[in-house]
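Late entry, calcium ion complex.
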Amino acid sequence: MSLPRLYLICLFAIFIGMAVPPPNVVFIFADDQRADTIAALGNPIIKTPNLDRLVKRGVSFSRAYMQGGNQGATCVPSRAMLLSGRSLAQIDERLMKHVTWPHAFGEAGYTTFAAGKWHNGPPSIVKSFQQAKALFVGGMADPMKAPISDMLPSGKLTPPKISPKHLCEQSTDETLAFLRSQDGTKPFFTYLAFDGPHDPHIVPDDFPVKYDIATIPLSPNFLPQHPFDNGEMVVRDEQLLPWPRSEVAVKAMLAAYYRYISFLDMQVGRILDVVDASPYAANTIIVFSADSGVARGSHGLIGKQSLYEHSLRVPLILAGPGIAADRRTDAMCYLFDVMPTLGKLCGIAAPKDSQGREFTSVLRDPAQAARPFLMFGYKSVQKALTDGRWKLIRYPHVDRTQLFDLQADPYETKDLSGAPEQAERIKEMLTKLAAEMKADGDDDPLTAAKIQPAEWKPPVKLPKPGQKGF
Ligand SMILES: [Ca+2]
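Prediction complete; structure with ligand written out below:
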């Protein structure tokens, strides 16, 4: 190619680059939604036609994870990790010590808007977003009558009033009003955080989608009771059903949980319809994810206070300009890598304290890898490491170790820790886990000073579950 021609092509490329404004972001975040609850990604029972639409137009991650929790209310650390880009051992749960990613988007010229659940304290919503509506900043509530606030231009929140609709519907309405007010000339960042499908699993009576308790399948790793004391056996979430967990009770819970997900899916569809009909449809990145999975009978557990895949893995779908369409990826990443990735796609410099890694190469080519291994923790009682195939979970307080081959046993039903041929692997993984924890500032020991009995029996008298912001 002649030099003048190359010069002209370069000039044209620069011109095109300048003419296209940075992409908008619509981030939809569910609460306690398992990764295996999307029809297009392999669940044959659930109805999620709108998430399926999103799957068709983007990249879906099968191995995106919450890193764990430092309290039973894993919502709080998970959202702090997501919004700050920091790891579990390094977060400020009130989000006041670090510059958040939404704040960085605002500083870079984006209009920023939030609606729905905010569980990191009112001061940090004001610090993170320019506008906010239908905010739910309390603990748990019936979503049909949840207290909500709006952010005033002064930055103050209005006194809470009871939401006129189901909280997820109301926060979607407010997000739609914001989206309709945008013409695409100035980029925007929208964060819609549902408080569902977290329990209580309540949707409007007239919502037509229902699931049959008689035919809904249990997860392949259903158990009536967890086989040993994992250090968090009677936390509030575990008290939602009695022990031993009965098949019928878990199926009833799953049916209500799936119905709630279908209700959320309808809200996702309303968002997609408005974006699709807008002048900025082609220049908008849509993200769907959740703050954690949840057990719902898997391994005899109900909540998300464990390091099994069902609790840590989250749905993650990204679609938009520069992102491959209708592709799946097994690349491993943390939720706190998502904002750095969006920052890269939008040309936003990372806040200096953000530790997450961007994985835009996976969005272009889903065969690429992201992180080579992941480390997880739940308080001081559970720590884990995976390289994608092998997963080790350590329970220091009862001196128990589990080893799973996720390739052969994705449901973590066969603990290989007793197999002599795995002894060397376990030793290596424990050494690596200890080194990675140290590097990340997690000082918890992998062997407790006092070992407790692993055997566990349901207590005769339960502790009060409490109502802290789960
Ligand atoms: Ca949650």
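The CA atoms of residues 277 and 353 lie 37 Å apart. Will revisit in the morning.
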